[in-house]
């Protein structure tokens, strides 16, 4: 894909995401504003702040990577776990999470970890080409791929803090649900859950787990927050 086309594509991708994000933030503010005073009835945003971890939005494990926040650097140090590479700071957690998942289903494997920007670009372009070969026109193909594969720079795999974990042949929903329940204990969250694609920009992925640290993961899971929502809550903390 040439540079001019990529720039155009970035605009197509970024604009709706920008509008969606701002609408979400506006809704968030409006909801807080409209909540009754805490002295009478506790508003939802206040109850969500109960037990909010004392962490900084700038902590390394909370780095936000999506279409509005491209990752332009590289992990400082990578370590190999199974057949994949991850940021060396999460190697132990990844190993332990995999071992716990293999107790539920023996064939659970790590399918993907760290991916360079060039590898992400290749993956994206290959998916577009596959769809075009099956009869989609270019616009349709790219629109479909964008809901399934992040554009280069927008993939968490470039941070080394995300893993795809599943059985090679795919996973039953029931099994995937049990593994998701295990994740926070090891500092991981299911990054693209059902019902949040208007915020994350990606369709539901039962296999993509992101390391955020145990305390953050447990809070996010308990309060049903994706990373974008959790960071907004941390920033909003008085
Ligand atoms: Zn993934």
* Shape designation: globular
* CATH-level-2 architecture: 2-Layer Sandwich
**Are there runs of 5+ residues with pLDDT below 50, and where?**
1-44
Q: In which range does the helix fraction lie?
A: 40-55%
What composes the largest sheet?
Answer: 4 strands, antiparallel
The secondary-structure element order is HHEEHEHHEHEHEHH
What top-tier CATH class fits best? Alpha Beta
Give the neighbour order of strands across the main sheet.
3-4-6-5
The number of helices is: 9
Task: Estimate the strand proportion.
Answer: 5-15%
CATH topology: Muramoyl-pentapeptide Carboxypeptidase, domain 2
Give the total of domains. 1
Compute the number of strand runs.
6
- Helix/strand/pairing class, anyone? alpha+beta
N/C terminus separation: 46 Å
Mean pLDDT: 84
Classify the oligomer: single chain
The molecules bound to the chains, other than polymers, are: zinc ion
Q: Which value, in Å, is the CA radius of gyration?
A: 19 Å
Give a short summary of the structure.
This protein is an alpha+beta fold.
Describe what you observe in this structure.
The protein has one domain: Muramoyl-pentapeptide Carboxypeptidase, domain 2 (2-Layer Sandwich), CATH 3.30.1380.10. A hairpin with a 2-residue loop joins strand 1 and strand 2. The protein has 238 residues and is of the alpha+beta class. 47% of the residues lie in helices and 11% in strands. Helix 4 packs across helix 5. The strands form 2 sheets. Strands 3-4-6-5 form a 4-stranded antiparallel beta sheet. The N terminus is likely disordered. The protein binds zinc ion (ZN). Zinc ion binds next to strand 4.
């Amino acid at each position: 894909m040439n540079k001019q086309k990529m720039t155009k594509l970035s605009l197509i991708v970024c604009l709706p995401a920008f509008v969606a994000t701002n609408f979400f933030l506006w809704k968030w503010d409006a909801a807080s504003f409209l909540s009754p005073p805490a002295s009478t009835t506790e508003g939802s945003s206040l109850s969500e702040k109960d037990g909010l971890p004392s962490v900084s939005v700038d902590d390394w494990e909370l780095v936000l990577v999506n279409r509005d926040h491209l990752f332009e650097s590289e992990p400082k140090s990578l370590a190999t776990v199974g057949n994949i590479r991850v940021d060396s700071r999460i190697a132990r957690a990844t190993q332990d999470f995999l071992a716990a998942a293999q107790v539920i289903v023996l064939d659970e494997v790590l399918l993907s970890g760290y991916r360079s920007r060039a590898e992400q670009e290749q993956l994206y372009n290959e998916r577009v080409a596959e769809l075009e070969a099956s009869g989609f026109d270019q616009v349709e193909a790219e629109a479909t791929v964008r809901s399934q594969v992040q554009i280069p720079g927008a993939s968490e795999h470039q941070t080394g803090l995300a893993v795809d974990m599943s059985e090679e042949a795919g996973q039953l929903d029931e099994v995937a649900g049990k593994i998701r329940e295990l994740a926070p204990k090891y500092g991981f969250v299911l990054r693209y859950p059902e019902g949040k694609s208007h915020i994350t920009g990606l369709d539901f992925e039962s296999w993509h787990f992101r390391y955020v640290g145990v305390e953050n993961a447990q809070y996010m899971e308990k309060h049903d927050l994706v990373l974008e929502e959790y960071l907004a809550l941390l920033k909003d903390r008085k």
